[in-house]
Amino acid sequence: MDMGVVDFLFQLGIILISTKLLGILMRKLGLPQVLGFIIAGILIGPAIWELMFDVDGLMFPISENPYLKAFAEVGVIFVMFTAGLETNLNDIKNTGKMSFVIALSGVLLPLAAGTGLGALFLPEKGFFSWLFIGVIMTATSVGITVEVLRELGKLQTKVGTIIMSAAIIDDVLGIIILSVALSLAGTSGNTSPVLSAINPNNLPVVSVLWILAFFVFAIGAGIGISKLFKAIEKTTPHTRRIPIFSIAVCLLYAFIAEKVFGVADITGAFIAGVVLSTNHASAKYVDRKVTISSYVLFAPIFFASIGIKISFSDMSLDVLWFALAFVVVAILMKIIGCGGLSKAFGFSFKDSMRIGVGMIARGEVALIVTEKGIPLLIDAKYRAIVVLLVLVSSLLAPILLKLLYKNEKDTLPLAQHPELGEAHLE
Amino acid sequence: MDMGVVDFLFQLGIILISTKLLGILMRKLGLPQVLGFIIAGILIGPAIWELMFDVDGLMFPISENPYLKAFAEVGVIFVMFTAGLETNLNDIKNTGKMSFVIALSGVLLPLAAGTGLGALFLPEKGFFSWLFIGVIMTATSVGITVEVLRELGKLQTKVGTIIMSAAIIDDVLGIIILSVALSLAGTSGNTSPVLSAINPNNLPVVSVLWILAFFVFAIGAGIGISKLFKAIEKTTPHTRRIPIFSIAVCLLYAFIAEKVFGVADITGAFIAGVVLSTNHASAKYVDRKVTISSYVLFAPIFFASIGIKISFSDMSLDVLWFALAFVVVAILMKIIGCGGLSKAFGFSFKDSMRIGVGMIARGEVALIVTEKGIPLLIDAKYRAIVVLLVLVSSLLAPILLKLLYKNEKDTLPLAQHPELGEAHLE
User: Fewer CB atoms < 10 Å away: N or C end of chain B?
Assistant: First the structure.
């Protein structure tokens, strides 16, 4: 009943109405709903309001609201968790090597190009600052792409699996490069106090081994949890226990990933979904339950919050040219890096473009990397360029994907997924 | 990915597991699940941990966590909203006068007894401090009772309707008495800047009229919203739009109630549910969708948060005797006040006891009233007595209600409510 919380209820109400209305509008225009969610966030957030009226969003300060942050975080966790639940592990096994090479190419190209761009535009800065511009460009934020592919019914296709696998590997590579770059520059980039304790000198090799240890832990614990769930499922089938315990496992995986192993929490949530997806008896049931909660409330809030976080007030003209070059390079290097390699692996031009475009979106990881680098390596005013990259790539990815999938029939039977089927029918 | 948010993911995971496990345990013991949720909150919150190890809850500071607060607030809003959706307006109309008299008696008796208790134990304080002890005792927190009645399948009985109606009226009376008491003592108790603006001198009559204006507004706006929803329902039946817009209406009603009219946000959410329940075509569908989100995630979090907020560290021996008397009087006066009047209205002894016991629970309203009074009228150390009242009454209400409904068959067909039916079967 604290006033801040009551204001938050208003914000939630406005977010739900505006995301739904703009989601419907996007569908009418033949665009993905998720794009409407982001645009709704831009409309109610500070981006326009602070320029026009010098206020932070529609009626109440919203961009730094801790309550909204919690809902948005749970939202992205749920999006990644359900994506994990819908993953076919055999597909990842089959595409693993290919995805790794595609992800590696999609990381190294932006890294090199970004470093060059830094040297070109910011010659007065040193090598580590240039390198950091490259590091910011590396991390794909797959949440939007996952959502678009899901809406299009393409998440469980080969292209969808390649994108998902490559994004996970990309995330791991990004973490490794960030920790290596920051340890070379003499600071720690990881967010895990455990890793800081066992690796006080930031030796890159220890960080990398520790990240790999997460996957060993996740799979090991997952086998035990799957057995436990199967036993519960046997004694009390289809009660609400399994979905609730599954959500708890997802949340704990997310926490342990980031806090113990220094891996992004969204990666932890995705891996939790993959681990639980092997329990075929309950995976679909859990997925349906989580999907309802997620899609009614959390996913719109997460995607709106991306729009809400966007602000142009730091943007000045001298930054603008650099910003434009930065955005163009960041997007092109992912398309060339991932799409080019896909073509080399024998994918059609259209499928290669889909994979490349599916990897262009940057999000919270890029913003967090920026925050880590600002005190040490780059100016605070360059925050705006990363915001612009997030905005443009978040808007471009769904539009381009939609275009690339135009005139293709939905390959997934809708009846298999009644909740999502319903969304399609709206 | 902020560390605070990541810690919150851990807390959420622990809350979900512990509430579910203790909920199952309570069911095995023949007690309501909701009691297990509260006990889970006590176990993971500071109550025990700070006494034993001087830490605030299990592993992370939890009791003042803003993220948890947001989820808990949405939780209680959803509990009240679904209660409103399940309300039969005709029943309230039929029981309105009776409920009003029962609520009035259940407000005046604790008010008088609390004032007397203040005079007895705190003679050095003045009349307004004594009165304030009484004011704290008045507000019933009906969330727990609603949940227990729902679990027992008794929410839509005559006793259930009387309790719901009386609790709403009780809330309104409590707000009126609080604003009158505080305005007599020379300060403003309402949380609405609008009311403060139109009533700068805190005239009680203006406050009361303004509270009544909320109900006029709520019903007027509700008629328009219902018409709009019926039109949407006609063009696109059973899509996810209606539940989402309904949740948004609930959130906005909660906000407007508290921010504009100075009425508790939970009252606003309940009224939103009542208004939308008149749209019979979609009310059940909306109820089911909200109930899934609510019962998987939000309701356990809200009830756990009550347990988590409890702390005994302020409790000293000289406060203890007063505290015991305060708790006993507060509980007995509700039972006598509401139960006695029910008996006078011709209810059986058992039904009268059910109504009386259904009104004993105190919650966040009592705590907020206390916070308002502490700077002006009472010592901060008396905060602990209100916490004790919340604890004892929150635990006692479900246990006593369960006992009073023992050996009675469930009168609601489970099939009518598949999600709740499922909970019953667990």
Answer: C
